[in-house]
Specification:
InterPro entries: Adhesion/Biosynth-related (IPR050904), FAS1_dom_sf (IPR036378), FAS1_domain (IPR000782). With 186 residues, the chain is an alpha+beta fold. The chain is built from seven helices and seven strands; from the N terminus they run H-H-H-H-E-H-H-H-E-E-E-E-E-E. Strand 4 and strand 5 form a beta hairpin. The relative contact order is 0.14.
């Protein structure tokens, strides 16, 4: 009988402890703002390797790309685990696009078209430079395909944009390119 009584007390104490811990955790979560409410991009982490978005944000040569990614509301998507291969045009690459066309794409009413173009610069998976082969076709996030070619030791995308650098990131790799990729008309 004494064993049953002690067991009952122990179970009651464990139950009360669990309830108090649950209440404490729910109170904490109500008080503390949730990083997930703003998406993965809002997570503060100064120790880990940067994701593709944070790498681009830290580059003075990709301010136009970063502005476009923000306008297209793709920051959180590209901050997720991935893995992604991003073909990232430089500011100089965007300067080759007619100014009026670029300004038009940055308008709210053209967000879907901007998203399509930016998603044409992203592959799901990691394609390191040594993995890219002449004639290789890679499916992009917008369901279009790009074609890789090699000439004189250079890797070229769609015959128009050359990879000038490759930067690893926590959720993939960034290939810096000297041209903007335009998806084929659907």
């Amino acid at each position: 009988m004494k064993k049953i009584f002690n067991l009952s007390i122990a179970i009651a104490a464990l139950f009360l402890y669990a309830c108090n811990t649950s209440e404490a955790n729910s109170t904490k979560s109500e008080e503390a703002p949730s990083a997930t409410a703003a998406g993965q991009s809002a997570v503060q982490d100064d120790e880990s390797q940067k994701d593709v978005v944070k790498v681009a944000m830290g580059s003075k040569d990709h301010t136009t790309l970063v502005a476009a990614v923000k306008q297209a509301e793709l920051v959180d998507v590209l901050s997720n685990a991935g893995p992604f291969t991003v073909f990232a045009p430089t500011n100089a690459a965007f300067e080759k696009v007619p100014k009026e066309a670029l300004e038009s794409l940055m308008k709210d009413e053209n967000k879907a078209k901007l998203q399509d173009i930016l998603q044409y610069h992203v592959s799901v998976g990691v394609f390191k430079p040594e993995m890219l082969q002449d004639g290789q076709v890679i499916n992009q996030a917008n369901s279009g395909n790009i074609t890789i070619s090699k000439k004189d030791g250079k890797i070229i995308v769609n015959g128009t944009a050359t990879i000038i650098a490759s930067i690893p990131a926590s959720n993939g790799i960034i290939h810096v390119i000297d041209g903007v990729l335009l998806p084929p008309q659907k």
